[in-house]
Structures are given as structure tokens and as C-alpha cells.
Amino acid sequence: SNSSTVRQHLPFIFLTSNTDTQQAIVLIKEGADDFVNKPFEVGELVFRIRRTIKEKQNQRAIDLFNTRLAKDLEAAARLQRTLLPKPLTEVHDVNFGWIFNPCDEIGGDLFNIFKLDNEHLGIFFIDVSGHGVSSALFSFALSKILSPLPDQSSLFREYAENPDSASILPPGEVAKHLNNRFPLDTETEQYFTLLYGILDRKSQEFHYVSAGHPGIVYHAYNSSPRIISVASPPIGFIPGFEYQEKIIPLSSGDRLYIYSDGIVEAGNNKNQLFGEKGLTKALAESRNSPLKDTLQFLINGLNQWLGQTKAEDDISILGIEIV
């Protein structure tokens, strides 16, 4: 109400002849900012009034800052969600689904799916170290480099000598360019992991590289999910590192899952990690469900397992299914 708003910013100092300390505490709890015992010195009263007014002004400035910050974070969160994959309505032989749950208003996870040409889809997943504003700012900067333009992708277009005759760069070359462009910053100690792959829709093969990223989950149709890990450093850790390309042959009904470490490293109040076991178990239990339902089943199970414990890192996962 208006009266409560006015009261919030007006200082209240009680003059009292009661010297009982407990009574003074009651006055403070009921809304007094300060109290002065009678008889009082005018100088002391003036000092307390000025101090209380200053404290009120400082608190109001903090409240205004927090309000503006909350609005800015909400705007940043809306902006970040615009960077998530757009529907590929013309692609009918591959299904996609994803979940993006930053642990704060904004996070450091970034992923996308896009057409490289009529036969190839580019897929990347980046996890910036840390979380919150600093990680989100880094991921915003990366999105400008990695996110595709209409009918083109900066992943190959940027490095082509002649954009009109640009060819698709292999995943290893993309990782190499990024590794050279983003050396580890020793001052901020901020870095990112990467999984970048090209899905060949004709041959049904997924060619990819992993730079320090969690292992990809390969869930073949009528089989158990398994994690394929690649030992490699994050982007920028080792100058000149040669990232080796891996290939996963796919068939109709097969699924791939790319995720951030916030899922497997989520810890509950018993200091237990959800782990790769929890991840593959949830995916296996919901294998017969549509892809998006499987992802939601996983997140629901993770949240139930966490209980009242808040996730300390961003939780994101991208699913790919061959139709």
C-alpha cells in the first residue's frame, strides 16, 4: 500500500522514558529505526536523526539498484533464450529436443542446431566455466561467432577465402580455429568446453570433436545407452592442440544426447552426485517415449533426486533422434 511504502522510507525514532532494554528491542521489532531515552541531549538526538536518514537513503539506493538489476537480468534471460535453437521445419528426417535450465537467471551454456547445406546439419554445445553473469557474457560473445546466419554458418563462412564458394570445415578445423582464437585467460581463468559435430543426413553419420566436454550419450535403438568419452583439453588450454575427429554411425531410431556437466555433477544433500549412472538410467527408462518427453523425464528425475538442494550449475541437454 501507499502508506507502507511511505513508512518504508520515513525514519521513526522513539523518545522513551523506559530504560528497559527488552522494551527497546520490542520497539525496534515493531518498526522503530532507533530510540532515545529521556531525558536526552539535543546533540545526540540530532546525530541519531541524521544517521537514520542516511541509512534510509542508502537502503533506498540499494533497493532501487536491486530492482534495476533484477529487470536487467530478466531482459538478459529473455535475450539468452533467443539464442536457443530455432525449429528446422524443413528437416523431417531428424528430431531435436532440448532443455535449458540455468542455475541463476542467466547461464554459460550455449547450443544450437543449423543447416550447413541440404545434406549436413551443424550442431554445437558450449559450456563456459562458472555460471551467472560473467559466464553468460562470455557465451553471448561466443554466440556472435558460432551462431549461423540465414542459410549460412559462420562456423565455415568466417574462415573461407571466398564466401561465395565456401566449403564446410571439418569439426577438427573448427575446434582448431577456436583454440587459436580463445587462449586461456590467466587473469579471469575463464574458458569453455566444446562439442561440435556435423550430422550427415545422407550417410547418417555424426562426425564430431570434443574439447574437454562431457562424453556424448549414444542410445542405439533397442539397446542400452552408453557414454562415449573423448580425452581432450578445453578450448584454449593447449596452444596448437590437434582435436581428433570421431564418427558415430547412426540408424533409424538412434538417439544422441549432448549435455553440460551440471547434470552429472549435480549433488544432493547426501553429497551424492547424479552422475553418468543417473543420466543413462533415466534415459533408458523413458526410451519408448517421444524425445522431448524423455528429456523432461530426465529433468524431473534429477529435480526429484536433488530434493530441496539447489543446483549449483547450469543444467542443459540437447537430444537428437534419427527418424
Tag the structure with descriptive keywords:
single chain, alpha+beta, Rossmann fold, 2 domains, five-stranded antiparallel β-sheet
**Can you list the strand order of the major beta sheet?**
3-12-11-8-9
User: What does the radius of gyration come to?
Assistant: 27 Å
Please give the number of β-strands: 12
**CATH architecture identity of the largest domain:** 4-Layer Sandwich
How far apart are the first and last residues' alpha carbons, in Å? 57 Å
Helix content: 25-40%
CATH superfamily of the largest domain: PPM-type phosphatase domain
Number of helices: 9
Mean pLDDT: 85
Number of separate structural domains: 2
Main sheet: strands, sense, barrel: 5 strands, antiparallel
Shape: elongated
Describe the model.
- By secondary structure, the protein is of the alpha+beta class.
- The protein folds into two domains: 2-74, 3-Layer(aba) Sandwich (Rossmann fold); 83-322, Phosphatase 2c, domain 1 (4-Layer Sandwich), CATH 3.60.40.10.
- It is 36% helix and 22% strand.
- It has helices spanning 2-9, 21-29, 42-81, 133-146, 154-157, 171-181, 261-264, 275-285, 291-306, and strands at residues 13-16, 34-37, 94-101, 109-115, 120-128, 192-200, 205-211, 216-219, 226-228, 246-249, 255-259, 315-322.
- The strands form three sheets. The chain has a five-stranded antiparallel β-sheet. Strands 4-5-6-7-10 form a five-stranded antiparallel β-sheet, with helices on one face. A two-stranded parallel ribbon has the order 1-2.
- Helix 2 (21-29) links the parallel strand 1 and strand 2.
- Helix 8 crosses helix 9.
- The longest helix is centred in the first third of the chain and has 40 residues, at 42-81.
- The model has no long low-confidence stretch (mean pLDDT 85).
- It holds the Pfam family SpoIIE.
- InterPro entries: Bact_Sigma-Reg, CheY-like_superfamily, PPM-type-like_dom_sf, PPM-type_phosphatase-like_dom, Sig_transdc_resp-reg_receiver.
- Residues 1-53 form the Response regulatory domain.
- Keywords: Hydrolase.
- One of its GO terms (biological process) is phosphorelay signal transduction system.
